[in-house]
From TrEMBL:
Protein's recorded name: Riboflavin synthase
EC number(s) stated in the UniProt entry for this protein: 2.5.1.9
Domain Lumazine-binding: 1-96, 97-193
UniProt entry keywords in alphabetical sequence: Repeat, Riboflavin biosynthesis, Transferase
UniProt keyword Transferase, yes or no: yes
Catalytic activity: 2 6,7-dimethyl-8-(1-D-ribityl)lumazine + H(+) = 5-amino-6-(D-ribitylamino)uracil + riboflavin
Taxonomic source organism: Streptomyces rectiviolaceus
Length: 208
């Protein structure tokens, strides 16, 4: 589990395209400190497993399902990425509960800078809009953020200087893809309310 508080802005140093997957080599001195084979690291909000670790770099295999569902397939050597290690039991939950399981992708639609922050508009897939509410939480490229405004096919977020300086959201431009993970609590609530509305279906699934 992650919290959406990015630890460092890393870099893709190599991408090896395989038959049905890709192998990424990622540089991140902070997240590789003490890393070992089998550890999890979130890359732009996608939970990946460390295959190898050498110096300040690690490699991770990305399956076709992940490449198709997320924006990782658009990454190349030199791409900057948000990196976060899983939260440890007993640590502060600085953002919100983030699984590292991307629900879909959006695009940066518009950026409106101001003196102390920047409002960014992001497109929202239709099947995710019901999970996004004003003042709710959403993860964008692995960054835990608060929704400012939620529309039927978009939402806006307000980015402070720290977020702009230390994450990819400071360099993404209109048209660039971003990974989206909605609040898991919203999905659980929907499922529970659905089972209550259709108790026979819920009972049947419970016996499978």
């Amino acid at each position: 589990m992650f919290t959406g508080i990015v630890e460092e802005l890393g870099e893709i140093t190599a991408v090896e395209n395989l038959d049905d997957a890709s192998r990424f080599r990622v540089r991140g001195p902070v997240v590789t400190d003490g890393a070992k084979h089998g550890d999890s690291i979130a890359v732009n909000g996608v939970c990946l497993t460390v295959v190898e670790h050498e110096g300040d770099e690690f490699t991770a295999d990305v399956m076709a399902e992940t490449l198709n569902r997320s924006s990782l397939g658009a990454l190349a050597a030199g791409s900057r990425v948000n990196l976060e290690r899983p939260t440890a039991v007993g640590d502060r939950l600085g953002g919100h509960i983030v699984q590292g399981h991307v629900d879909g992708t959006g695009e940066i639609v518009e950026r409106k800078p101001s003196e102390n922050w920047e409002i960014v508009k992001v497109s929202l897939p239709a099947d995710l809009s019901r999970y996004v509410v004003e003042k709710g939480s959403i993860t964008v490229d692995g960054v835990s953020l608060t929704v400012v405004d939620a529309g039927p096919d978009y939402f806006t977020i307000s980015l402070i200087p720290t977020t702009l300086a230390l994450t990819t959201l400071g360099i993404k431009q209109p048209g660039d893809p971003v990974n989206l993970e909605v609040d898991i609590i919203a999905k659980y609530v929907e499922r529970m309310l659905g089972d209550r509305a259709h108790p026979a279906v819920g009972a049947q699934e419970a016996t499978k």
